[in-house]
Design a protein that fits this description.
Elements lengths: L4 E2 L16 E4 L2 E6 L2 E6 L10 E3 L7 H12 L7 E3 L11 H8 L3 E3 L4 H4 L3 E2 L11 H4 L15 E3 L13 E4 L8 E5 L4 E5 L10 H6 L3 E2 L10 H13 L4 E4 L5 E2 H13 L1 H4 L6 H4 L11 E2 L1
Parallel strand pairs: 5-6, 6-7, 7-9, 12-14
Antiparallel strand pairs: 1-13, 2-3, 3-4, 4-5, 8-16, 10-11, 11-12, 14-15
Helix pairs in contact: 6-7
Pfam family, one: Lactamase_B
InterPro entries: Metallo-B-lactamas, NDM-1-like, RibonucZ/Hydroxyglut_hydro
Organism: Methylobacterium nodulans (strain LMG 21967 / CNCM I-2342 / ORS 2060)
Length: about 300
């Protein structure tokens, strides 16, 4: 079983779901939990058409839930100005093609994720050897094939800006995926961490159902480079975030979040890295091409 950094319940950053089915974590930021994964809505309620941004695009079958939440939160017919991706794993792009087409929305991602988003390369195979629970064991069944939003795909600029979200920055946080990014708003120190770290043991069905607040490294069965993943957690801990929402689990805030991140960064090799595993022994990296398989 994966180890964890326990977090005080007082560090939880979310309240009950609102009438739109989302949980607010800031006046203009809310998340929706979709069985296995979170999607994030950025924009004030009632923002209207093109007045908001979606971060990540859920799992297969979640289109209706996302569209209903968007309508309730932003107004009838309110399309996003963009869809931002932390990375392109199956549980973050499950309905990306459908939503991008229905909303005629541009998609933004890191250049190293491009092959997974233009149909040209598949992710390396998941690794069931990493342990921790049922999701690890069944991970070879998870899709690795790319989606194709090539006509709408835009690459995040090298200067760290996020064109659809003025005031936000993107941070390259590789390890879980070669082009994984996190999004950071300095004014209120709000972090959208994707799967650079998570707040539930995503390998375990029981932990995912329970959603107790705790800090973990990235989901083990899909993480390609543990040295890079450690560096990413260290970089995010140095930001001293006030609030963090991850791809899996509840959002956290305050001293409990920062103390937990410090502990995760310090003890990452013990807490997060599996004892065995395909990518523990041989990382899959962009520079040698091992992170990409022919689609």
């Amino acid at each position: 079983m994966a180890q964890q950094i326990p977090i005080s319940p007082e560090a939880r950053a979310d309240g009950p779901a609102g009438p739109d089915g989302t949980h607010a974590i800031a006046p203009d930021v809310a998340y929706q939990r979709l069985t296995l994964v979170n999607v994030i809505f950025v924009g004030p309620p009632g923002a209207g058409d093109r007045g908001w941004v979606l971060i990540d695009a859920g799992i297969l079958g979640s289109r209706t839930a996302i569209e209903r939440a968007a309508t309730a939160r932003f107004g009838e017919g309110a399309r996003p100005s963009a869809i931002l991706l932390t990375h392109g794993h199956f549980d973050h792009v499950g309905v990306l093609e459908d939503l991008a087409m229905a909303w005629d929305a541009p998609v933004w991602a890191h250049p190293l994720e491009k092959p997974y988003l233009d149909g040209s390369a598949s992710y390396p195979r998941p690794d069931p050897r990493v342990g921790g629970g049922l999701f690890s064991l069944i991970s070879p069944l998870f899709p690795t094939k790319p989606v194709d939003v090539g006509e709408r795909l835009h690459l995040l600029p090298q200067d760290g800006s996020v064109p659809p979200l003025p005031g936000w920055r993107w941070l390259h946080t590789p390890g879980h995926s070669v082009g994984h990014v996190s999004f950071w708003r300095p004014v209120d120190r709000l972090l959208v961490a994707g799967d650079a770290f998570v707040t539930t043991a995503q390998e375990s069905v029981y932990a995912v159902a329970l959603q107790e607040p705790e800090l973990h490294g990235p989901p083990r069965y899909l993480t390609l480079d543990w040295e890079a993943a450690h560096g990413s957690v260290e970089a995010l801990a140095r930001l001293r975030p006030e609030t963090a929402i991850t791809g899996h689990g509840r959002p956290l805030r305050g001293p409990g979040l920062r103390e937990g991140l410090d502990a995760l960064a310090r003890d990452f090799v013990i807490v997060a890295v599996p004892r065995d595993g395909r990518y523990v022994e041989t990382p899959a990296r962009a520079e040698d091409g091992s992170a990409y398989r022919r689609a």
